[in-house]
Amino acid sequence: MTQQLSERREAGSRTRATTAPVSFAAELEFRNIGFRAGSRRILDDVSIRAQAGKVLCLLGPSGSGKTSLLRIAAGIERQTEGSLWLGGSEVAGGDRFVPPERRGIGLMFQDFALFPHMTLLDNVRFGLRDLGASESRAAAMAALDRVGLVHAAADYPHTLSGGEQQRVALARALTPRPQVLLMDEPFSGLDSRLKDMVRTDTLQILRETKSTAVVVTHDAEEAMRMGDRIALLRDGKLVQVGTAHELYRHPASLFAAAFFSEINVLQGVVRGGRVESPLGAVAASPRSDGTSMTIGLRLNGLRVTTKRDGIEARILSRRFLGSVDLLTLAVAGADSPLRARIRPGDLEADVHEVFVSVDPQEIFVFEDTSGLV
């Protein structure tokens, strides 16, 4: 019952939210950032630019350096190499270091960090101490109204659902109208049924305020939903930066391809300008004959049919996943079984012998893949 009430209150608050005032958005640029903690190198020559009024997503697995970049931007950590620029001015680098409170950067923590002993109103007005009491109250009430929670201004954080707490944290971060808003895994603690709704509302508010936002996430789909640009990191290094379409359709490495979707990995070799594999000739290549290649094939890029079209294969297992059937297939010459996602009903349940071919848009070929998988 409590969960249902929270969800109804979440849904109802969306209709009450008002348009947000425009922020003082600025460009944030990391230039050749390096960061060490003792003998451990956490960031290595990272250069990324967050455009004014746009959302940049820092994407990567745990330990890739995403949160360290965020902490450097906030002034919580100080880089050991490179410089940080905000709105065209250097704020950290060499002998220069602007303290966090003077940067005009807002930080929204993963756990929201709301003060449990303060009302929602007092939580939101906490960062407005330079304003008078009446002005700060008016600004905080307007921010709560913007996120649909003005009716709960006198309530305390523990009375709210996770999604509502997230909205209060967002209101508090945006009320001082920062030049850049930093968000560290902002939706990771939300119920899956609320995550999409709250993420959509958050993105709408960021668009309305024309905020520059840097969002840390380990979820590729979330990065694609939110980011105007995505910076993919691994082991403290920048792997690739670009739009969601660029990273998905033109991955710079096997690691990048695998981060955005499940893939089959096969070995191939160049012969006569083509990359030969257990699935036949899968791509053209300018490399010399005999060059070893590694092939990444997305699961939806493996076509499966009973027609004699392609390479013979045998279905080893089949799992119904709702919108798709997941197949595991044995293919002669492949080092391990291959997987495919097909529409339910495309193959009869008693079919075991099939033929497979590849969708050329879902296959990627790389020559040097050492350490990338």
Keywords:
six-stranded mixed beta sheet; 2 domains; OB fold (Dihydrolipoamide Acetyltransferase, E2P); alpha+beta; globular; 373 residues; single chain; Rossmann fold; five-stranded antiparallel beta sheet; 9 helices
Task: Give a topology summary.
Layout: H1 2-16, E1 28-37, E2 40-50, E3 55-59, H2 66-74, E4 81-86, E5 89-93, E6 96-97, E7 105-108, H3 120-124, H4 133-146, H5 162-174, E8 180-184, H6 192-209, E9 212-217, H7 220-226, E10 229-234, E11 237-242, H8 244-249, H9 254-260, E12 263-271, E13 274-277, E14 280-284, E15 292-298, E16 302-305, E17 311-320, E18 325-331, E19 338-342, E20 353-358, E21 363-366
Parallel strand pairs: 3-9, 3-10, 7-8, 8-9
Antiparallel strand pairs: 1-2, 1-4, 4-5, 5-6, 10-11, 12-13, 12-15, 13-14, 15-21, 16-20, 17-18, 17-20, 18-19
Helix pairs in contact: 4-5, 5-6
Quick take:
The protein folds into two domains: about 1-250, 3-Layer(aba) Sandwich (Rossmann fold), CATH 3.40.50; about 260-365, Nucleic acid-binding proteins (OB fold (Dihydrolipoamide Acetyltransferase, E2P)). The protein contains nine helices and 21 strands.
Any overview of this molecule?
With 373 residues, this protein is of the alpha+beta class. Strands 7-8-9-3-10-11 form a 6-stranded mixed sheet, sandwiched between helices. Strands 2-1-4-5-6 form a 5-stranded antiparallel sheet, covered by helices on one side. The chain has a 5-stranded antiparallel sheet with strand order 14-13-12-15-21. The chain has helices at 2-16, 66-74, 120-124, 133-146, 162-174, 192-209, 220-226, 244-249, 254-260, and strands at 28-37, 40-50, 55-59, 81-86, 89-93, 96-97, 105-108, 180-184, 212-217, 229-234, 237-242, 263-271, 274-277, 280-284, 292-298, 302-305, 311-320, 325-331, 338-342, 353-358, 363-366. 25% of the residues lie in helices and 34% in strands. It has 2 domains: 2-249, P-loop containing nucleotide triphosphate hydrolases (Rossmann fold); 261-366, Beta Barrel (OB fold (Dihydrolipoamide Acetyltransferase, E2P)). Mean pLDDT is 88; it is low at 1-8 and 11-22. Helix 5 packs parallel to helix 6.
